[in-house]
Amino acid sequence: MSELNANHISMTFDEPNGNRVEALQDVSFNLKQGELLAILGPSGCGKSTLLNIIAGFLAPTSGAVLNGNTKLTHSGPDRGMVFQQGALFEWMSVAENIAFGPKMAGVASEKIRHTVDDLLETVGLQDFGDKAIYELSGGMQQRVALARCLANNPDIILMDEPLGALDALTREKMQSLVLKLWKETGKTIILITHSVEEALFLGERLFVMAPRPGRIKQEYYLPFAEEGLTKDPRDVKTSAEFIAKREEVLSMIWGMEEEIMGNNQAVGL
Amino acid sequence: MNMSLIKSFKHYSGLSKSGINNQKTSTFGDTEAIGKGRFWSIVSVITLAIVWHFGSTLGYINPIFWPAPSTVWQQFISISQDGYRGFTLWEHIWASLYRILIGFSLGCLVGIPLGFAMGLSEKVRGWFDPIVEFFRPIPPLAFIPLVIIWSGIGERSKILLIFFAALWIMVIAARAGVSSIKLNKIHAAHSLGANKRQILQHVILPNSLPEIFTGMRVAMGVCWGTVVAAELVAANSGVGYMIMVASKFLATDIVVLGVIIVGLIGYSIDIIMRKIEAKLVPWKGKS
Where does the ABC transporter domain start and stop, copy by copy (chain A) (predicted)? Predict the structure, then answer.
């Protein structure tokens, strides 16, 4: 059981025109093993920066991220990453993509084959192992991306708008798949999204972030992810509580937009 | 030919457009809808052959300027049987081909790793950028006098020129291949636990193959131009040499034969490379 700790993370950088941008200001949180955290916020609120710091692709200006007692300074196989799109390897088949992590770690090929077969079934792509990536639809490609990440058995899965490029129907199906994988594997998941509905439905915890400087504006603990595991997603999303929360969060984000742009312009939209 | 005749010919020859492309109504500017135009390629070649044949037999074309197809064909038969200037026709062709293959391979062997290094390391890029950018626009033929002084008119001088012709193109292609990678892919590989060597081998290298193939096709074309020109100046075998000697005797039939051979072989090489490309890089343009 390990816990993810973000301790007073701040991130400032200088733009080429000399402006100093405060992308993150004193962000702190704890994430228990097996929690599903959704991060929501308008563009420029630093949510991608935060994810990249946790992934180890960026070093914060101050503060630190700890996995258990280990300070995280570089990317590593303990934190798997699922991107919006374009991160699969087109020169490999579906099965080879999923096998990438274990193969690089030198796992025996017999064992890799088992892992890949299991995961293909988990994500519903049993008969697609030999297919090329460009032969798959966008939704199927994201299933491969999820399976590839799981094959490495990371402690934490980081998702950077993984469903952002999908059509509405595929997106709903994939949300259910994410919930199913979360329950079955017990992994800690951090998911970034632009969609208020998706954040509320998937996030057991939810951070709403505000821009300039990027910070956590509001934190929620939500029941909808648990409900989504047993109930029909449509019923959850149309329940009175869900709709009430959605309006609350939406008006909060609208408030931020108006703060940035000034009332006149916001109304002018 | 009326349109329905063309249509039925296209259909039965298997050269017609297929599927939905045949039913699109706005095709102007839609590159998929316009098809490959194979049918019109065949028409074009046949038309040129007919114009050439009748232009010559009816006396519109002076054979000193441009010989008749039958004369060229007879030259082809006689040279392929008796040879020309001490070498058979195949030896001449092979001489040119050999120079290209060796020079081109050396160019790839040096150029691709150098391009990779320039794409991956700031220091290497900084060191070599002025050198590459300086030599790249200079036509390799400008080096002919120097190359002859250095290594005479033997094989080495031609191979050196072709090496120069291929080198810069391959450096730039490989460098472009490295920088074409999406950061997402590199990050994904890192977070899947791959080390630098593994990322280079399994991610950066295969990802750059489309650019490298494009570079190779461009380089191949330039190499042909260079070898023929080099043989025109200094050689004792090769297709370019054949053309040069024939021109001194006003033997335009041999000159034209040489030109046709160069064109056909260049075209064939490009077709072969496109086939290899389709086999090795099937994802090109599809992601």
Answer: 4-236
Q: Determine the distance in angstroms separating the CA of B13 from the nearest CA of chain A, rounded to an integer.
A: 29
For A109-118, the pLDDT digits (tens) are: 999 999 999 9
Beta strand segments in A32-169, E: 36-40, 62-67, 70-71, 79-82, 156-160
CB B115 within 8 A of CB B170: yes
- Residues written for chain B: 287
Structure tokens at A186: 């017990």
- Chain A: residue nearest B285 by CA? A134
**Interchain contact A176–B (C-beta under 8 A):** no
> pLDDT grade, residue A260 (50/70/90)?
confident
Per residue in B143-175, pLDDT (tens digit) is 888 988 988 878 889 999 999 999 999 999 999
Tell me, which fold does domain A4-78+156-268 have in CATH?
Answer: Rossmann fold (3.40.50)
Instruction: Choose, out of B192, B197, B279, B284, the residue to mutate when testing the contact with A (most A CBs < 10 Å).
Output: B192
Q: How far is B59 from chain A (nearest CA, A)?
A: 57
Q: Where in chain A is the domain with CATH 3.40.50.300?
A: 4-78+156-268
List A residues 138-157 in contact with B (Cβ-Cβ < 8 A). Answer: 148-149, 152, 154
At A149, the amino acid letter reads C
Q: Tell me which H or E stretch contains A190.
A: strand A188-193
Closest among A146, A150, A149, A218 to A175, alpha carbons compared? A146
Q: Which residue of B has its CA nearest to A150?
A: B192
The structural domains of chain B, ordered by start, are 46-82 (no CATH), 89-280 (1.10.3720.10)
